[in-house]
Amino acid sequence: MRVLLQEKRVRFHQKFVLLFLIGASASYWGCQKPGGGTAASGPPGGGKKGGGDAPVTLTKAVLKDVPMEVQVIGNVEAHSVITVKAQLPGEITQVSFSEGDYVKKGDLLFTIDRRPTEGMLRQAEANLLKDMAVLGQAEANLARETAQEKYVRSQADRFANLFKEGLASKDQVELYRTNADVIASAINADKAAIASANASIESSRSSVNNAKTQLSYTEIRSPIDGRTGNITVKQGNVVSLQTPELVTINQVQPIYVTFSVPEAVLADVKKYMAQGKLQVVATPQDDGAAPHTGTLTFVDNNVDSGTGTIKLKATFANDDRRMWPGQFVRVTLRLATIRNSVVVPNQAVQTGQEGLYVYVISEDRKAEMRTVTTGARIDQDLVIRSGLQAGETVVTDGHLRVAPGGRVSERGKGGKKKSEEKGKEGTP
Q: What CA–CA distances, in Å, run from 410 to 304, 358, 364, 368?
C-alpha cells in the first residue's frame, strides 16, 4: 500500500513540473517582439527602427473666427409679476376670464357687486346738489341785503344833509345809520354763509369723486399684458381688503433669463458691454428645442461673496411664448469674436507631466511632442493660444502608440496594413 502511494506522488510531481515548464516556455515566446527582441528591450511606442509605424488619425490645425463665450445654466423669470387684489369688499358677481388665459392691459377680470357703491355715489351726488342750493340761497341773500344797504345808506346821507339845514331831526339820521349798519352785518353773515356753502360743495364733490373711485374698484382690470394663473377666489365668494390675492399675472413678453457668471468674467463683461449690446443665447434643456436670442440688459451691483459669482439678466422678446417662468435653460453669453484663432479638435490635446501637449507630425511622418497653451473650448474644438501654427498636422487618435521622434502612419491610407506586414516578416 505504501509503495503504491509513493508511486502516485512521484507521478503527480512529474506532471506538475511538466506543466510548469510548458507555461514558462509559453511566457518566454509571448514576450518576444516580431523583430526578434523582447518587449522590455524594444523601442517605446513602436515608433523607432525595427518596430513599424504607429497607426494614428491625423488632422490639420486651422484658422477660425472663434466666439468668446461663457456657458452657464440660467433660469427664466417673468418680466413682471402682478398680484391682483380686491380694493373694495363685496361679493364677486362675475369672473371674465379662464385660468391660464392671456389677457391684455385693461381687460376685465373680476366684477364686484356694484349696488352698495352706487348707493353711496347717489347719496354723495344728492349732498352736492343740496350744498349748491344752499350756496345759491346765500348768494341771493347777499345780493338783496347789499341792495338794501345801499338804499339805507343813501337815505342816511340825505337825512344828514337835511339835519344840517334844520329840516330833519337827529333821531331820523341816527335811525337810518343804524339800519345801514345792521344791513352791513347781515351782508358779512351772507358772505360767511357763501364761504361755508363753497366748502360744503368741495366736500360733497370729494365725496362724489371718492364714490366714483370706489365704484371703479368694482371692476378689476388687468394692469399689464400677460398670462393669468390660478384663480384663488371663485365667483359668488365675498372678498375683503384682507383677501391675499385673487389671481397672479405674469408678463412673458418680453421675458428675463437670470444667470450667474464667475467674478473673473466680470471685467470682460463690463469691457465688452461698454462697446455695445452683448448677445445671449438661451436653449431649453428639452431635446431638439430651438435656441432663443436676446441681449444682456442687467449686471448686479455686487458679487455674491459666498459663491464668487455675479448675477446677470438678459431680455428676450419671446414672441412664440415658448420660454416659461421658472424654466431652466442653457445660457451662452457671447462677449466677442476672436479673429483668426488656431483651432484643433479637443482630443488632439493631451495632458503630460509638463502640462498640455500635442503630437505634431512632420513631412517625413515623424512625431514631435510640443507643449501648447490652450484657450476657449468651442463645441468639439479647442483654441491654441501658443505652441502651434495653422496648417501643422497633429495626432487626434492613437496617442498611446506614438513616441517622440517615432514614425507614424495615417489610418485609412494603407499605413496600418504595411506596418502589420513588416511585423509578420520579423516574426520567427
A: 51, 16, 12, 15
CATH of the domain at 75: 2.40.30.170
Nearest Cα to Cα of residue 248 among 109, 65, 132, 143: 109
Side chain identity, residue 63: L
pLDDT score of 49 = 45
pLDDT tens per residue, range 89-114 = 999 999 999 999 999 999 999 999 99
- Indicate the pTM of the whole model: 0.62
Domain hosting residue 202, numbered range: 114-217
Query: Percent of the chain scored above 90 by pLDDT?
Result: 53
> What cell does 201 get?
360743495
Handedness of CA 61, 67, 68, 71 (dihedral sign): negative
The full DSSP string for 140-183 is: HHHHHHHHHHHHHHHHHHHHHHHHHHTSS-HHHHHHHHHHHHHH
Q: How far apart are CA 227 and CA 253, in angstroms?
A: 10
Average pLDDT rounded to a whole number, residues 145-168: 76
Residue 407 and residue 377 share a domain: yes
